[in-house]
Design brief:
Oligomer: single chain
Distance between the termini: 83 Å
Helix content: 10-25%
CATH architecture of the largest domain: Sandwich
Shape: elongated
CATH topology of the largest domain: Immunoglobulin-like
Order of helices and strands: HEEEEEEEEEEEEEEEEEEEEEHH
Number of domains: 3
Structural class: mainly beta
Radius of gyration: 31 Å
Number of helices: 3
Strand content: 35-45%
Amino acid sequence: MREKLILVILLALFLFLPTAGVVLADDPGIPDTCRVQCLDFTPPGQQVVIPVTVYNDEALGGLAVPLTFGHAPFDVVCDSVSFQGSRITDAEVVGATIDTANYRLVFYVIYFSTDLPVGDGIVANLFFTTGSNWDTTLCVQVDSTFYPPTTRLEFTPRASGQALRPKFIKGCLNSGLPLIPALFTPADNGYECSQDTFQFTWSKSLEVNYSLQYAQDPDFTTGVVTKNGLTDTSYAISLPRQTYYWHAKSYNQCGKESAYQDSPFSFYVYVSGDASKDGIVDVSDIVYLLNYLYRGGPQPDPPQSADVYPDQVLDVSDLVFLLNYLYRHGFAPACPPYK
């Protein structure tokens, strides 16, 4: 009896501790899948249970599932792994190892005379307990990992005996609260030049990606454009003359998203040289600038739109620049080097 137990243990080690150089094959067709449940919220000082389910469309002779459940200083421990009432209760060998210090665990299953039949359902329940310093605002994933010395996520079909790499759907102990990013540029009630390429920018946080949205009205019903999956906190663009509104939100690793800002920023895109604000550069802009400079007329809005000789001053040099452009084949108005 003792010899048989030793044989079973040795065989388990042989099957689930392959050499580091082994490359697992992908599962053809509909891939077998290992899924870990995601908990939306886990309070401090509480034990929770996270089921792990397996879908397999072929009989399996064994499987190994190494997982990680955070990192220091997360105040959480894995208490145990239970197989009671799961799909694998009739396996000849089931076991689990928990490495609390490194926030890792692995459980494994081996069949000798039978197998894990085709199906879908729970194979294990993971029991975790959070401490008093548990941070409920963070996303804490339960993800697949490499478990030393050589164990990785793998399913072994009974028919082929070739270990396969299944699809993995990670879970979480706590889904967290993604932060609403702070908006930087274009500044609220700011200006951008339509001939120029400018950048939307917002604050960086611990989140993994962002969504940017801009529109032509504050309710985001007209001319709405959404850019999803942005991993940087900036987005370069050039837009035609128009008033725009914009906001941004963030997503964390658990797939949760923040809200957009309560008040979006607005900005106006102007055309350099278009002092009269009609969308084109023509003689009306010369007249508009003449009225402002010499007849007490209204200032161009924004002043940058008439500063075609970009010295940050509206004066006769801008009139001369427009006359040269319109009637003497001079340079076209360009965006000034300031905002």
